[in-house]
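Weekly puzzle thread! Below is a chain. First person to post its structure in token form gets bragging rights.
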Amino acid sequence: MEVTRIEVAEKTPEGILENNIFLIKEQKVLRAEMASIMNPRIKWTFRDFNKVLKEVGFREVHITKENCVVAVK
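Winning reply:
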């Protein structure tokens, strides 16, 4: 069995809605399953961080491979 997960995050007023698409390959059959998960603890996307940090004077904003936001003043 081989499973590939694709996540498309959507910003909503309640938090980040994570729409997950799972592509499941078993033998010669490929099927897709979908699951949405609301994460109410996370309200900001990377675009939000980037915009705000640039507005207050940070010249460089990037995300690491460990998924951390780094801002350089």
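Puzzle host: Confirmed. Bonus trivia for everyone else. The mean pLDDT is 89.
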